[in-house]
Amino acid sequence: MEIPFGISEEIGFRRTMEDEHAVYQDPARSFFSAEIYDGHGGRQPAQIAAEMLTPWFLHALAREPERPPGERRDEAAILREAYLAVDEHLVGRRVQAGTCAVQLYLIGERFLAANVGDSRVVIGTGQGATVLTEDHKPDATAERSRVEALGGSVVMLGVPRVEGILAVSRALGDVCLKPYVSAEPRIAEGVLGSENDVAVLACDGVWDVLSPGEVIEAARQGRVPREGAEEISHKALDRGSTDNITVIVLDLRGYTSTLKNRKMVIQRVYDRELRT
Q1: pLDDT tens digit string along 175-199?
Q2: In this structure, which long-range contacts are made by residues 214-221, counting pairs with CB atoms below 8 Å and at least 24 apart in sequence?
Protein backbone atom coordinates (compact mmCIF):
# COMPACT_ATOMS: atom_id res chain seq x y z
CA MET A 1 0.00 0.00 0.00
CA GLU A 2 1.32 3.43 -0.94
CA ILE A 3 1.19 6.15 1.72
CA PRO A 4 0.01 9.60 0.56
CA PHE A 5 2.41 12.37 1.57
CA GLY A 6 2.94 16.07 1.00
CA ILE A 7 5.92 18.38 1.42
CA SER A 8 6.29 22.11 2.05
CA GLU A 9 9.55 24.06 1.99
CA GLU A 10 10.13 27.70 2.91
CA ILE A 11 13.44 29.56 2.98
CA GLY A 12 12.04 31.87 5.68
CA PHE A 13 14.15 34.92 6.41
CA ARG A 14 17.46 33.17 5.79
CA ARG A 15 19.71 34.00 2.85
CA THR A 16 20.10 30.36 1.83
CA MET A 17 18.13 27.13 2.09
CA GLU A 18 20.10 24.50 4.01
CA ASP A 19 17.36 21.86 4.44
CA GLU A 20 17.07 18.66 2.41
CA HIS A 21 14.47 15.92 2.47
CA ALA A 22 13.93 12.46 1.01
CA VAL A 23 11.02 10.05 0.67
CA TYR A 24 11.38 6.37 -0.27
CA GLN A 25 8.39 4.16 -0.97
CA ASP A 26 8.47 0.46 -1.87
CA PRO A 27 5.03 -1.14 -1.34
CA ALA A 28 6.29 -4.51 -2.60
CA ARG A 29 8.73 -4.64 0.35
CA SER A 30 6.29 -2.97 2.78
CA PHE A 31 8.82 -0.17 3.26
CA PHE A 32 8.30 3.59 3.50
CA SER A 33 10.56 6.31 4.78
CA ALA A 34 10.29 10.07 5.16
CA GLU A 35 13.25 12.10 6.34
CA ILE A 36 14.41 15.69 6.82
CA TYR A 37 17.97 16.98 7.12
CA ASP A 38 18.33 20.44 8.66
CA GLY A 39 21.79 21.67 7.72
CA HIS A 40 23.86 24.29 9.51
CA GLY A 41 26.94 26.07 8.21
CA GLY A 42 26.16 24.97 4.66
CA ARG A 43 23.91 22.63 2.70
CA GLN A 44 26.47 19.98 1.73
CA PRO A 45 26.10 17.67 4.77
CA ALA A 46 22.30 17.64 4.41
CA GLN A 47 22.60 16.81 0.70
CA ILE A 48 25.05 13.97 1.34
CA ALA A 49 22.97 12.52 4.18
CA ALA A 50 19.76 12.66 2.14
CA GLU A 51 21.45 10.76 -0.70
CA MET A 52 23.31 8.25 1.46
CA LEU A 53 21.58 7.30 4.71
CA THR A 54 18.51 5.30 3.69
CA PRO A 55 20.20 3.57 0.71
CA TRP A 56 22.95 2.47 3.13
CA PHE A 57 20.30 1.15 5.54
CA LEU A 58 18.42 -0.76 2.83
CA HIS A 59 21.63 -2.25 1.43
CA ALA A 60 22.71 -3.40 4.91
CA LEU A 61 19.25 -4.82 5.59
CA ALA A 62 19.38 -6.81 2.35
CA ARG A 63 22.75 -8.30 3.37
CA GLU A 64 21.39 -9.56 6.70
CA PRO A 65 21.43 -13.39 6.89
CA GLU A 66 18.19 -15.32 7.12
CA ARG A 67 16.86 -15.57 10.67
CA PRO A 68 15.07 -18.53 12.28
CA PRO A 69 11.27 -18.31 12.26
CA GLY A 70 10.07 -15.82 14.87
CA GLU A 71 13.46 -14.11 15.22
CA ARG A 72 13.39 -10.52 14.00
CA ARG A 73 16.25 -8.48 12.56
CA ASP A 74 17.51 -5.65 14.77
CA GLU A 75 16.53 -2.86 12.41
CA ALA A 76 17.31 -0.15 14.97
CA ALA A 77 20.91 -1.36 15.27
CA ILE A 78 21.26 -1.33 11.47
CA LEU A 79 19.83 2.20 11.30
CA ARG A 80 22.32 3.31 13.94
CA GLU A 81 25.12 1.92 11.78
CA ALA A 82 23.77 3.92 8.83
CA TYR A 83 23.94 7.14 10.86
CA LEU A 84 27.51 6.42 11.92
CA ALA A 85 28.51 5.52 8.35
CA VAL A 86 27.22 8.87 7.05
CA ASP A 87 28.97 10.71 9.86
CA GLU A 88 32.23 8.87 9.19
CA HIS A 89 31.95 9.81 5.51
CA LEU A 90 31.44 13.50 6.36
CA VAL A 91 34.28 13.52 8.88
CA GLY A 92 36.56 11.74 6.41
CA ARG A 93 35.90 14.51 3.90
CA ARG A 94 36.68 17.11 6.60
CA VAL A 95 33.27 18.72 6.15
CA GLN A 96 33.12 21.58 8.65
CA ALA A 97 29.35 22.06 8.44
CA GLY A 98 26.79 19.62 9.80
CA THR A 99 23.17 18.59 9.74
CA CYS A 100 20.42 17.48 12.09
CA ALA A 101 18.46 14.47 10.87
CA VAL A 102 15.05 12.92 11.49
CA GLN A 103 13.45 9.82 9.94
CA LEU A 104 10.22 7.91 10.15
CA TYR A 105 10.54 4.39 8.72
CA LEU A 106 7.49 2.15 8.30
CA ILE A 107 8.46 -1.50 7.81
CA GLY A 108 5.40 -3.70 7.67
CA GLU A 109 3.39 -2.76 10.75
CA ARG A 110 6.46 -1.53 12.62
CA PHE A 111 7.92 1.95 12.84
CA LEU A 112 11.35 3.40 13.57
CA ALA A 113 11.56 7.09 14.46
CA ALA A 114 15.17 8.28 14.59
CA ASN A 115 16.87 11.62 15.10
CA VAL A 116 19.96 13.58 15.95
CA GLY A 117 19.43 17.25 16.74
CA ASP A 118 16.14 19.08 17.17
CA SER A 119 13.95 18.06 14.22
CA ARG A 120 10.96 15.96 15.26
CA VAL A 121 8.43 13.31 14.28
CA VAL A 122 4.94 13.77 15.73
CA ILE A 123 2.04 11.41 15.16
CA GLY A 124 -1.68 11.99 15.59
CA THR A 125 -3.12 9.84 18.36
CA GLY A 126 -6.88 10.14 18.69
CA GLN A 127 -7.50 13.76 19.65
CA GLY A 128 -3.91 14.30 20.71
CA ALA A 129 -0.33 14.17 19.46
CA THR A 130 2.59 11.95 20.42
CA VAL A 131 6.19 13.04 19.89
CA LEU A 132 8.29 10.05 18.79
CA THR A 133 11.68 11.80 18.90
CA GLU A 134 13.67 13.70 21.52
CA ASP A 135 15.49 17.00 21.04
CA HIS A 136 19.24 16.92 21.63
CA LYS A 137 19.92 20.26 23.30
CA PRO A 138 23.26 21.03 24.98
CA ASP A 139 21.62 22.06 28.27
CA ALA A 140 19.70 18.79 28.69
CA THR A 141 21.17 17.07 31.75
CA ALA A 142 22.38 13.92 30.01
CA GLU A 143 23.73 15.82 27.00
CA ARG A 144 25.60 18.39 29.09
CA SER A 145 27.11 15.64 31.24
CA ARG A 146 28.28 13.76 28.16
CA VAL A 147 29.85 16.85 26.56
CA GLU A 148 31.62 17.89 29.77
CA ALA A 149 32.86 14.34 30.46
CA LEU A 150 34.62 14.49 27.09
CA GLY A 151 36.30 17.77 28.02
CA GLY A 152 33.93 20.05 26.15
CA SER A 153 31.81 22.92 27.40
CA VAL A 154 28.29 24.24 27.07
CA VAL A 155 28.26 28.03 26.81
CA MET A 156 25.25 30.35 26.87
CA LEU A 157 25.41 32.61 23.81
CA GLY A 158 21.78 33.54 23.27
CA VAL A 159 20.98 29.84 23.73
CA PRO A 160 23.13 27.02 25.16
CA ARG A 161 25.80 26.01 22.62
CA VAL A 162 28.45 23.30 22.46
CA GLU A 163 31.80 25.11 22.73
CA GLY A 164 29.82 28.33 22.30
CA ILE A 165 29.11 27.39 18.67
CA LEU A 166 26.38 24.82 18.01
CA ALA A 167 22.89 24.87 19.54
CA VAL A 168 22.42 21.08 19.26
CA SER A 169 24.52 18.39 20.92
CA ARG A 170 24.03 15.66 18.30
CA ALA A 171 24.35 15.99 14.53
CA LEU A 172 26.01 14.48 11.48
CA GLY A 173 29.27 16.13 10.43
CA ASP A 174 30.64 19.13 12.38
CA VAL A 175 34.18 17.75 12.32
CA CYS A 176 35.54 20.72 14.30
CA LEU A 177 33.25 19.84 17.24
CA LYS A 178 34.09 16.15 17.51
CA PRO A 179 33.82 14.29 19.84
CA TYR A 180 31.48 16.62 21.72
CA VAL A 181 28.79 16.61 19.03
CA SER A 182 27.66 13.00 18.72
CA ALA A 183 26.20 11.24 15.69
CA GLU A 184 24.56 8.54 17.85
CA PRO A 185 20.83 8.58 17.00
CA ARG A 186 17.95 8.10 19.37
CA ILE A 187 15.60 5.53 17.82
CA ALA A 188 12.07 4.80 19.01
CA GLU A 189 10.76 1.47 17.78
CA GLY A 190 7.24 0.08 17.98
CA VAL A 191 3.94 -0.61 16.26
CA LEU A 192 1.26 1.80 15.10
CA GLY A 193 -2.38 1.66 16.12
CA SER A 194 -5.74 2.29 14.51
CA GLU A 195 -5.96 5.78 16.06
CA ASN A 196 -2.83 7.02 14.24
CA ASP A 197 -4.23 9.01 11.31
CA VAL A 198 -1.44 11.44 10.44
CA ALA A 199 2.29 11.91 11.00
CA VAL A 200 4.37 15.06 10.64
CA LEU A 201 8.12 15.49 10.30
CA ALA A 202 9.47 19.03 10.58
CA CYS A 203 12.64 20.92 11.40
CA ASP A 204 13.06 23.28 14.34
CA GLY A 205 11.79 26.25 12.32
CA VAL A 206 8.35 24.78 13.05
CA TRP A 207 8.82 23.44 16.59
CA ASP A 208 10.31 26.69 17.88
CA VAL A 209 6.92 28.39 17.43
CA LEU A 210 4.24 25.66 17.26
CA SER A 211 3.29 22.93 19.72
CA PRO A 212 2.90 19.29 18.63
CA GLY A 213 -0.86 19.56 19.08
CA GLU A 214 -1.06 22.68 16.91
CA VAL A 215 0.98 20.98 14.19
CA ILE A 216 -1.22 17.87 14.10
CA GLU A 217 -4.36 20.03 14.06
CA ALA A 218 -2.99 22.03 11.12
CA ALA A 219 -2.02 18.85 9.26
CA ARG A 220 -5.57 17.56 9.57
CA GLN A 221 -6.99 20.73 8.00
CA GLY A 222 -5.59 19.92 4.57
CA ARG A 223 -7.75 18.06 2.07
CA VAL A 224 -4.54 16.36 0.92
CA PRO A 225 -1.20 16.02 2.75
CA ARG A 226 0.47 18.80 0.72
CA GLU A 227 -2.18 21.27 1.91
CA GLY A 228 -1.61 20.16 5.48
CA ALA A 229 2.15 20.67 5.11
CA GLU A 230 1.62 24.14 3.65
CA GLU A 231 -0.78 25.05 6.46
CA ILE A 232 1.89 24.15 9.02
CA SER A 233 4.54 26.19 7.20
CA HIS A 234 2.28 29.23 6.95
CA LYS A 235 1.33 29.03 10.62
CA ALA A 236 5.01 28.85 11.60
CA LEU A 237 5.82 31.93 9.51
CA ASP A 238 2.82 33.78 10.94
CA ARG A 239 4.09 32.98 14.45
CA GLY A 240 7.42 34.61 13.65
CA SER A 241 9.68 31.74 12.59
CA THR A 242 12.71 33.12 10.73
CA ASP A 243 14.44 29.80 10.03
CA ASN A 244 14.32 27.51 7.01
CA ILE A 245 11.18 25.38 7.21
CA THR A 246 10.63 21.88 5.83
CA VAL A 247 7.50 19.86 6.63
CA ILE A 248 6.43 16.38 5.51
CA VAL A 249 2.87 15.23 6.24
CA LEU A 250 1.85 11.57 5.92
CA ASP A 251 -1.76 10.42 5.63
CA LEU A 252 -1.75 7.17 7.62
CA ARG A 253 -5.47 6.42 7.52
CA GLY A 254 -5.23 3.76 4.83
CA TYR A 255 -2.14 2.28 6.44
CA THR A 256 -3.67 1.95 9.92
CA SER A 257 -7.29 1.24 8.96
CA THR A 258 -6.69 -2.53 9.06
CA LEU A 259 -5.32 -2.45 12.62
CA LYS A 260 -8.82 -2.39 14.16
CA ASN A 261 -8.68 -1.40 17.84
CA ARG A 262 -4.94 -1.83 18.37
CA LYS A 263 -3.14 0.94 20.24
CA MET A 264 0.20 2.39 19.26
CA VAL A 265 3.01 0.99 21.40
CA ILE A 266 6.60 2.24 21.68
CA GLN A 267 8.35 -1.04 22.42
CA ARG A 268 11.94 0.15 22.71
CA VAL A 269 14.05 3.30 22.76
CA TYR A 270 17.50 2.57 21.35
CA ASP A 271 20.15 5.14 22.29
CA ARG A 272 23.74 4.03 22.75
CA GLU A 273 24.72 7.35 24.33
CA LEU A 274 22.28 6.60 27.14
CA ARG A 275 23.05 2.85 27.08
CA THR A 276 19.46 1.96 26.14
Answers
A1: 999 999 999 999 999 999 999 999 9
A2: 215/122, 215/129, 216/122, 216/123, 216/124, 216/128, 216/129, 219/124, 219/249, 220/124
Alpha helices in the chain (DSSP H): 44-63, 75-92, 141-149, 204-207, 212-221, 225-238, 253-256
Distance, in Å, from the CA atom of 264 to the CA atom of 214, rounded to the nearest integer, reads 20
Contact 86, 79 (CB under 8 A): no
Listing DSSP states for 8-32 in one string gives: EEE-TTSSS--EEEEEEEEGGGTEE
* Burial of 104: CB neighbours in 10 Å, binned 0-12, 13-18, 19+: buried
Query: What pLDDT digit, counting tens, does each position of 125-153 carry?
Result: 988 999 999 999 999 999 999 999 999 99
Round to whole Å and give the CA distance between 121 and 202.
Answer: 7
Q: Which amino acid would we find at residue 113?
A: A
Q: Which residues pair with 210 in a beta bridge?
A: none
Q: Locate the DSSP E strands across 165-224.
A: 172-173, 186-191, 198-202
The answer to whether residues 152 and 165 touch, using CB atoms and an 8 Å cutoff, is no
pLDDT value at 67 more than 80: no
Residue 33 backbone dihedrals phi, psi, to 5 degrees? -140, 145
Order the strands of the 120-125 sheet from edge to edge: 5-10, 245-251, 198-202, 120-125, 128-131
The C-alpha angle with vertex 205 and arms to 95 and 31, in degrees rounded to 5, equals 75
User: What is the set of domains in the chain, with CATH numbers?
Assistant: 5-274 (3.60.40.10)
Reduced to 3 states, what is the DSSP secondary structure of residue 116?
strand
CA-to-CA distance for 71 and 65, rounded, in angstroms?
Answer: 12
CA distance 172 to 177: 11
Distance CA 229, CA 251 (A): 11
